[in-house]
Design a protein that fits this description.
ABC transporter transmembrane region fold, 594 residues, 12 strands, binds adenosine-5'-triphosphate, ABC_transporter-like_ATP-bd, ATP binding, 21 helices, six-stranded mixed beta sheet, 2 domains, four-stranded antiparallel beta sheet, ATP-binding, single chain
């Protein structure tokens, strides 16, 4: 079922109650009416009991007995139904809340989402959502109902005997003052607890991601110790929370016990001197006992509410993540057809482009161009800024300064979706997603291609026989790490790119050695692609730069030269150093000089 997410909240804050009511007004109205019926029936019950006792004294109790059963049943049924309807409405809101959290995580810049952390973000969908759910059960229903019953009970008690009420209020009031202090302390600790749980989850997920490396370095013990320290932090905060939570019940109980004893003594005296009748005294005592339930609900409800509000603050952190497409034309506005001039313009051109991840500049006035056809290699020492250039073209990040034109058009004239649909991108790690070979190949495609087309793409990277030999063929699940070898996974990622019709292909060449067969295949795939489009490869291999029509040399965030391999070996000292120093994989001095 398609679901609408929660829209961006005004003022950047999520407002739980309006969001709960949004779209469910009739249900919320029914919940309110049922809750009122339940409260009225609960309040009426002791009065009916008093009438029953009076009737028993006169020997005509039958009618009041039936009324008492009906009122009791009415309170129970209305209470249960309102609780269920509210819970169902709250689940609808939680679905929207989870959906918006996921949407926001996908819509933000990759590094912003990564900075927040996968484990930390996923606790929003689990622990934090549960805390919001509890608060939603309590806030709009149990808490107001408890307060209503509490006030109604107090009014009726005042009518029955105001002197006994004063005795009750004095005894319970003291306990309440203590409870208020505890609740304020709890709100702060709930926030700390949710942060600590998010941190633990984040670090555990990160450790699981690196499990093979941890095992290879026999670092399980050390990693476990670190995670245990995080778990101990959680325990410390949890103990602190428990210390305060455990005070709530006993303090209130004590207040109630004192009130009961005082009322029994005071009531006995007033009964003897005739200021109070026996049915009135019984009714008063029943109301006093009935006071306990709404009091406890109110107190624990306020604590639960604090927990929910702390979770709400954590959702707000995710909702505050800025969407990455602010610097682009809005998606959905009509895309302009590429003009002939645009089609012949350089596929990428940078003029004085600057970029910093934090304060330190990573690109420092980069000027480069990638021709509209042919293979362009981007080379440079590790950390020179090559992957950052690809990231800026893909729109993963926004330059801090300078002009970026892609496929002949100003970057901001593209919508991000439109831009990315024109670019084929294969990342350095050849990332595949958990799923089947088919779902990986067709990732993001609106119409699934026929199997023949998928096998054509697989054949282009020599993977068709491997996939045919798998028990489930294209529907074999990969991603658990064991179905395909590293090289086969790389070729699958390339086949995925081949299934898209792109004007620009960007390939972040892996630094790991490919076997010569795979490397040869990669070269011919790249050659074929470059025949009628622009291919930009971050090159770590001698074979790739020799094959390139155009080479761009980067050093410490700047482009130091552009040209052909032979020109650059002759004229560009840093490039010659890369080649002669055999810093490019497979570079041999005599080969390089050829
Ligand atoms: N997400 C990030 N946050 C902060 N700094 C980063 C981030 N990614 C890269 N950097 C820094 O930016 C600089 C350029 O990195 P980049 O990955 O573009 O280099 P590269 O030339 O592609 O290197 P390599 O050949 O090793 O892949 C490096 O100094 C790196 O430390």
């Amino acid at each position: 079922m398609a679901t609408t997410a929660i829209p961006a909240p005004a003022g950047g804050r999520l407002r739980l109650l309006p969001e709960l009511v949004r779209g469910s007004r009739p249900t919320v109205a029914v919940v309110a009416v049922l809750a009122l019926i339940s409260a009225a029936a609960t309040l009426a019950l002791p009065m009916v009991a008093a009438r029953l006792i009076e009737a028993l004294q006169t020997g005509r109790a039958g009618g009041w007995g039936v009324v008492m059963i009906l009122v009791g049943l009415g309170a129970t049924v209305a209470g249960a139904l309102s609780a269920f309807l509210l819970a169902r409405t709250a689940q609808g809101m939680l679905l929207r809340l989870r959906r918006r959290t996921m949407e926001q995580a996908f819509a933000a810049e990759v590094r912003e989402t990564q900075r927040m952390g996968a484990g930390n973000l996923s606790t929003r969908l689990t622990v934090d959502a549960m805390n919001v759910k509890q608060a939603l059960n309590v806030g709009p229903l149990q808490l107001p109902l408890a307060v209503l019953v509490l006030l109604g009970t107090i009014v009726i008690m005042a009518v029955l005997d105001w002197v006994l009420l004063v005795i009750t209020v004095l005894s319970v009031g003291l306990a309440f003052a203590g409870v208020g202090v505890v609740i304020v302390a709890l709100k702060k600790r709930y926030g700390m607890l949710q942060g600590a749980v998010g941190g633990l989850s984040e670090r555990f997920v990160a450790a699981l991601d690196g499990l093979p490396v941890i095992k290879a370095h026999r670092a399980e013990g050390a990693t476990l110790d670190e995670l245990t320290r995080d778990a101990e932090d959680v325990r410390r905060v949890e103990v602190s929370v428990a210390r305060f939570e455990s005070l709530l019940g006993p303090v209130l109980n004590l207040g109630q016990q004192i009130a009961l004893v005082s009322v029994l003594i005071g009531g006995g005296v007033r009964l003897v001197d005739g200021s109070l009748t026996l049915p009135e005294f019984v009714a008063f005592l029943m109301y006093l006992l009935q006071l306990a339930a709404p009091l406890m609900t109110a107190v624990s409800g306020i604590a639960t509410l604090q927990q929910g509000l702390a979770a709400r603050d954590r959702f707000d952190e995710v909702f505050a993540l800025a969407p990455e497409d602010r610097a682009y034309r809005p998606t959905g506005s009509a895309p302009a057809e590429r003009t002939a001039a645009e089609a012949h313009a350089p596929a990428v051109s940078f003029r004085d482009v600057r970029f910093a991840y934090d304060t330190e500049p990573v690109l420092d006035g980069v000027d480069l161009h990638v021709p509209s056809r042919g293979l362009t290699s981007l080379v440079g020492l590790s950390g020179a800024g090559k992957s950052t250039v690809l990231g800026l073209v893909e729109g993963f990040m926004t330059p801090t300064d300078g002009d970026v034109r892609i496929l002949g058009r100003e970057r901001s004239a593209w919508s991000l979706a439109e831009l990315r649909s024109r670019i084929g991108y294969v990342d350095q790690r050849f990332t595949l997603l958990r799923g089947t070979i088919r779902s990986n190949l067709t990732l993001g495609l609106t119409a699934a291609p026929a199997d023949d087309r998928l096998f054509d793409a697989l054949a282009a990277v020599d993977l068709h026989d491997v996939v045919r030999a798998l028990p489930d063929g294209l529907d074999t699940t990969i991603g658990a790490g064991s179905d395909l070898s590293g090289g086969q996974r790389q070729r699958l990622a390339l086949a995925r790119m081949l299934l898209r019709d792109n004007d620009l292909v960007m390939l972040d060449e892996p630094t790991s050695q490919l076997d010569s067969l795979t490397e040869g295949k990669l070269r011919s795939v790249v050659e074929e692609l470059a025949a009628d489009r622009a291919v930009l490869v971050v090159a770590h291999r001698m074979s790739t730069v020799q094959q390139a029509d155009h080479v761009i040399v980067m050093d410490q965030g700047r482009v130091v030269a552009q040209g052909t391999h032979h020109q650059l070996v002759r004229d560009c000292a840093p490039y010659a150093a890369l080649v002669h120093g055999q810093l490019l994989l497979g570079a041999e001095p005599e080969l390089a000089m050829a």
